[in-house]
Amino acid sequence: MINIFYCTDDKFFKQQLVSLISLKNTTKEELNVINLNVECKKLNKHSKKMTDEQTAFLDGLLKTVNKNSSFRSIDVSNLFEEVMVKGPNLNWKFYSYFVTIRLIADLVKEIPDKVLYVDADVIFNKDVKELFDIDIEKVEIAGRRDKGRIFNYMQSGVMLMNMALIRKTGLLERARKLVTTKKYLYIDMTPMNIACKKRLILPKKYNNYKYNENNIIHHVCDTRVGKIPLTKKWWRRVKTDEEELMISFHPEYKNIYDELEVYKNSHPELFRK
User: Fold this and answer.
1) Is the pTM of this model over 0.90?
2) Quick one: which of 51, 220, 227, 267 is 20 to 30 A from 214 by CA?
3) SS3 state of residue 118
């Protein structure tokens, strides 16, 4: 069984669906996928949790490939507000405070001892079993070195996590304390890197920012549209729920977006207007 968790709400349903389409199209393994589901009006008055209907649809999607696979949403709204909604990063303009949801994973009993965390904007290019089967018995987290870093500073969008060890060492507890007491540019990633004492740096094919046929995971955070940085022209990240733009940059994903279109037409009630 392959254990995976996301942290999203209703707003990210379409992005998560794209990710899960790519996942179920690239592996026949039994999947245990958990979503830490949050609705936090204190941070965003428009915040809405993923609905039971959306959860049931995603569960059924995974079962079309392996009947033993499952998708579950766990409402951690109260826990998140109690533990994380405080401190100097509360309204940090560069990053949504919601990226810190992953820092409460050790407090959620349903998160298994070995689990792969992925952002909603990842697309699986090949069978994720190769990544999940990496031995992390003696490390807390395995991940790729972030772009442009000299030291072993891990990018937090794809992390293979030894939750059994993390719960013993208190890695995420230390990271939460840092986030809620000190200001950071990368409000989740830097505290996690500071707190992590035992890590394994993986090849970038397990979390590549660019498309490559040898990728296991393509993290599309570097797909950008507009002018180059430091000019007066706009330049921004293309999100995976921007179908036409994504296909223009990555025509290799047209089959994923064709499948997405089928679901949008057959289940329009699931998609936020």
Assistant:
1) yes
2) 227
3) strand
Residue 42: predicted pLDDT: 72
Kindly give, in sequence order, each residue whose CB lies less than 8 Å from that of residue 242, ignoring residues fewer than 6 positions away. Answer: none
Answer yes or no: are the C-beta atoms of 193 and 145 closer than 8 Å. no
In the chain, the amino acid numbered 178 is L
119, 217 contact by CB (below 8 A)? no
Q: Give the separation between CA 41 and CA 46, rounded to whole angstroms.
A: 7
**Confidence band of 94 (pLDDT split at 50, 70, 90):** low
Nearest of 233, 21, 189, 201 to residue 94 by alpha carbon: 189
Stretch 43-70: mean pLDDT, rounded? 92
Segment holding 169, helix H or strand E: helix 163-169
**Nearest Cα to Cα of residue 131 among 76, 185, 207:** 207
Res 87 pLDDT > 80: no
- Alpha-carbon distance values, 34 to 37, 116, 218 (Å): 9, 10, 20
Cα 242-248-249 angle, rounded to 5 deg: 90
